[in-house]
């Protein structure tokens, strides 16, 4: 005869059902609604960038002198610029530039910083001291100042722009990852890997880096918003991507003071696009940090 106690024991011994990715997403949306909104905007931005040739109503580079400074209307929903180019089409294609530069700089900067941070924590001693002093020197410069200096040295091509934006991100990520890697270094499995004779590279890449993925992902998402804003700032200053490339910062640069009163839409809509993208990535990054950090996790 099966009793209530037996049923309880069987239920306790039954393995817990593994949650699928859909369960994780739904739980994230329920617990972090603001983060879910940010993630939805990010996904929408990615879809817009991928489908730009299909959804853009006009060629973003096509010049139409007959439609110069046309206000928003049926033909041009967000108006045109001083060359008659459709503002909506340039904003849509500008999302491609923002994501390419943003993802490229954030990924390279976060990854290089993670490797440096883990390596510094793993070797310790003089290596850690030297690496951290170099990181302190780089981190003392504001993001925009160091990026401006790098662009001035390397030139303002797209690959050089990504490199210039990567440099200020590396030390910031390295310091955060190092603090997590210091505790991982003392774990028994790292000592066991050393005793087994594994190489330093294998221990760092296979045993330490995977265990600092939470702060790495948090830094990556937070850098995405900063990278998009930094790219727009450099383009606005004339040190980013160059005309006729569709870029939000360039659109703001084209909407100079002389058009502030006669064609305010030239600055309004690109500015809204930049603000929305940065806001979305920051919302998602903050919520991801709360979800992955055990000290901030609730329920």
UniProtKB/TrEMBL annotation:
Keyword rRNA processing recorded: no
SUPFAM superfamilies per the UniProt record, alphabetical: MetI-like
Pfam family name, one: OppC_N
GO biological process, one term: transmembrane transport
Residues annotated as domain ABC transmembrane type-1: 95-285
One GO CC term, this protein: plasma membrane
Entry's transmembrane regions: 34-56, 98-122, 134-155, 216-242, 262-285
Domain of life: Bacteria
Record keywords: Cell membrane, Membrane, Peptide transport, Protein transport, Transmembrane, Transmembrane helix, Transport
UniProt-listed Gene3D superfamilies: MetI-like
Main location group: membrane
Cellular localization per UniProt: Cell membrane
InterPro entries: BP-dependent_transpt_permease, MetI-like, MetI-like_sf, OppC_N
Membrane topology listed for this record: Multi-pass membrane protein
Family affiliation: Belongs to the binding-protein-dependent transport system permease family.
Record protein name field: ABC transporter permease
Organism: Vineibacter terrae
């Amino acid at each position: 005869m099966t009793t209530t106690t037996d049923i309880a024991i069987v239920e306790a011994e039954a393995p817990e059902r593994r949650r699928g990715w859909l369960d994780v997403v739904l739980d994230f949306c329920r617990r972090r609604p603001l983060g879910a909104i940010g993630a939805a905007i990010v996904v929408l931005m990615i879809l817009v960038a991928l489908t730009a040739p299909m959804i853009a109503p006009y060629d973003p580079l096509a010049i139409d002198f007959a439609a110069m400074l046309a206000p928003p209307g049926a033909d041009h929903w967000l108006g045109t610029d001083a060359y008659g180019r459709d503002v909506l089409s340039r904003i849509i294609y500008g999302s491609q530039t923002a994501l390419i530069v943003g993802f490229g700089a954030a990924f390279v900067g976060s990854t290089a910083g993670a490797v440096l941070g883990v390596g510094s924590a793993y070797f310790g001693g003089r290596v850690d001291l030297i690496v951290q002093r170099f990181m302190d020197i780089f981190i003392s410069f504001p993001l925009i100042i160091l990026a401006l200096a790098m662009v001035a040295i390397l030139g303002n091509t797209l690959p050089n722009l990504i490199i210039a934006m990567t440099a200020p991100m590396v030390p910031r990520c390295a310091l955060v990852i190092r603090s997590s890697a210091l505790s991982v270094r003392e774990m028994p499995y790292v000592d066991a890997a050393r005793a087994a004779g594994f190489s330093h590279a294998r221990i760092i890449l296979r045993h330490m880096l995977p265990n600092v993925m939470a702060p790495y992902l948090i830094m990556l998402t937070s850098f995405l918003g900063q990278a998009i804003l930094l790219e727009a700032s450099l383009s606005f200053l004339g040190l980013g991507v160059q005309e006729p490339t569709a870029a939000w910062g360039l659109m703001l640069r084209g909407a100079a003071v002389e058009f502030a009163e006669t064609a305010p839409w030239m600055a309004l809509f690109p500015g809204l696009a930049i603000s929305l993208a940065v806001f979305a990535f920051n919302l998602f990054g903050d919520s991801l940090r709360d979800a992955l950090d055990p000290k901030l996790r609730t329920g």
